[in-house]
Specification:
15 helices; single chain; 3 strands; mainly alpha
């Protein structure tokens, strides 16, 4: 279980300094932007985000000490615990409603979003599941079991309701299945089923505010003070930055308080406003480098389990980056998906750091076996 016999010398030799360096640079960059976007509460936001980063770093050390194969062995318990939390948060009086969704536990000064915990649980447990079926993945029974594995979490998250986070899980699951070489007939069938379900989702699952977000995506000017307000203000902030931006802490949306959720959902808009196109591109380059590093480590993992874990982490980051930046520039509907390492949120930061810890653990074992 614990792999510390090689001592501190092997730890420094086998530790992935490239990925860790990219993560630290990106996270610190994110905290600086939160300090600019946070307004009167900036100090509190920075403290919470910094504490989450430090706790996340401690979590990475623990995940390196615990072989990812050991975590896979107990994945059924990790998965079960995540289901328990997702059920518990749905109970009125226990789960708290924020932004029209019962998605949070309020534990004194600490807020916890169980769906974030479930992301890590899903990556570990689904990777274990895929590694077990391996060459038999295309047997109908195995496909149904894998879909059930994913579907249980998605249904519980949709009941909150949190459509955006559910889509993160769907994207992770599809990407991991693709890497596991699931047959194209299932992929095509799944796409067809998704298209068929869309009308049902529209009429029976999506709330009115969610429908309005989708409709105003195509014409936000139709409701400039309602559903289209966030998108219009975000696009104004992005465009006002031009090439070099207005300067850190000097964004107009900070002065006039016109852009909602500056420090969370629309942090990328703040980056573009204050640091311009240069800052926006830098954010994309840093996040892309982290994702590519995760994929590289997965390609060189010592077994399929490690490859699936790295794929799951990369897929989680890819979806969140595309969705968040897309909604900031008006390409995707507003869903409340955070931008990894940049959006304020202790649960989000901790989850992202733990996900990176899983990847570093895979890389650590890969180097050990080749030493």
């Amino acid at each position: 279980m614990i792999d510390l016999t090689k001592g501190s010398r092997n730890f420094t030799k086998n530790f992935d300094l490239v990925l860790m360096g990219l993560v630290l640079i990106t996270a610190i960059f994110g905290i600086i932007m939160i300090s600019s976007a946070g307004g009167e509460n900036a100090v509190r936001y920075v403290v919470v985000q910094s504490v989450a980063l430090v706790v996340g770093l401690a979590g990475i050390v623990i995940l390196i000490a615990l072989d990812y194969e050991y975590l896979a062995q107990i994945s059924v318990y990790i998965y079960g615990f995540s289901i328990f939390l997702l059920i518990l948060v749905l109970i009125p009086g226990i789960g708290k409603v924020e932004n029209n969704a019962r998605s949070w536990f309020h534990l004194g000064p600490v807020n916890l979003q169980p769906a974030e915990v479930a992301k890590i649980a899903f990556i570990i447990s689904f990777s274990k599941h895929l590694s077990e079926v391996d060459d038999q993945i295309n047997q109908p029974k195995n496909v149904l079991m894998l879909l059930g594995h994913l579907g249980i979490l998605c249904i519980l998250i949709l009941l909150q309701p949190d459509f955006g986070t559910a889509m993160v899980f769907v994207f992770m699951g599809i990407t991991m299945l693709f890497v596991a070489k699931i047959s194209w007939k299932y992929i095509v069938g799944g796409i067809a089923a998704l298209v068929a379900v869309c009308p049902l989702a529209w009429f029976f699952f999506l709330q009115d505010y969610q429908k309005n977000r989708i409709l105003t995506l195509f014409n936000p000017e139709s409701d400039p003070t309602g559903a289209g307000y966030h998108v219009l203000q975000s696009k104004l902030a992005v465009g006002s930055g031009k090439i070099f931006g207005t300067g850190l802490y000097k964004g107009a949306s900070q002065m006039n308080n016109m852009l909602p959720e500056r420090h969370t959902d629309f942090i990328y808009s703040v980056v573009c406003e204050e640091l311009g196109l240069i800052g926006g591109i830098l954010v994309i380059l840093l996040l892309t480098a982290i994702i590519l590093r995760c994929l590289y480590i997965g390609m060189n993992a010592r077994n399929s389990l490690g490859r699936y874990i790295c794929t799951g982490v990369a897929a989680m980051l890819i979806f969140q980056v595309f969705e968040n930046i897309g909604m900031c520039i008006g390409l995707f509907p507003v869903t409340g998906i955070t931008l990894p390492f940049f959006s304020y949120g202790g649960s989000s930061m901790l989850t992202t750091m733990l996900a990176i810890g899983l990847v570093i653990s895979v890389r650590y074992r890969c180097k050990l076996i080749n030493f």
